[in-house]
Amino acid sequence: MKPDKQQHIFEEWIALHRGLLFKVVRSYAFNSHDQDDLFQEIATQLWNSVPGYRGDSAVTTWIYRVALYSAMGWSKKENRHRDNQRTLLADNRLLLQQASPENPQLEWLYEQISKLDEIERSLTLLMLDGFSYREIGDTMGISETYVGVKLNRIKKRLTEYSEQEDRHGI
Fold first, then answer.
1. Domains in the chain, number
2. Residue 166 maps to which CATH number?
3. What pLDDT does 170 receive?
4. What is the domain range of residue 9?
5. 39-45: average pLDDT
6. How many CB atoms lie within 10 A of CB 61?
7. Where are the alpha helices (DSSP H) in the chain?
8. Contact criterion met (CB below 8 Å) for 27 and 125
9. Are residues 114 and 95 in the same domain?
10. Where among 79, 99, 119 does a domain terminate?
């Protein structure tokens, strides 16, 4: 593929799917510096993936796959780095807790999503973006039935957490 064509496709994908990319970024990175780093990592991987796109799946599915796998890899790398700097992480949590959220329900949802493991987090994001179980399964490389089971368990768990917080006035 010629560099001009790759550049055009990449810029088009970024422009059309910026919101999707930021959902993934926000679900895996929790401060602005990390979000910038993760976005750069995803953009780099997306750029590198352009020549490999054959059109076998929807562009959105392809971009989600690249973004999610990039985010999972970045997250593992960051977690290893953060294990060596637990004190800084504790300080960051204190700073994040002091910020007043613009939308408490949305902030609560992102907080809950961040507590899920990587697969559950990815499944949840795809579901929230309106993908069918089949599309989610294709994107993640798992069966449609497994997607349904996992998402039902996640929904049940989030509902229970929400009800607990409502009962306890949290």
1. 2
2. 1.10.10
3. 56
4. 1-99
5. 96
6. 16
7. 3-16, 18-28, 32-49, 59-83, 86-98, 104-115, 118-128, 133-140, 144-168
8. yes
9. no
10. 99
Confidence of residue 163 (pLDDT cuts 50, 70, 90): confident
d(CA 104, CA 134): 32
Q: Which residue among 57, 72, 99 closes a domain?
A: 99
pTM over 0.85: no
Alpha-carbon distances, residue 157 vs 23, 76, 89, 160, 163 (angstroms) = 21, 24, 26, 5, 10
- pLDDT, tens only, 47-106: 999 999 999 999 999 999 999 999 999 988 887 766 655 545 455 554 455 444 578 888
| Residues contacting residue 54 through CB under 8 Å, at least 6 positions apart | none
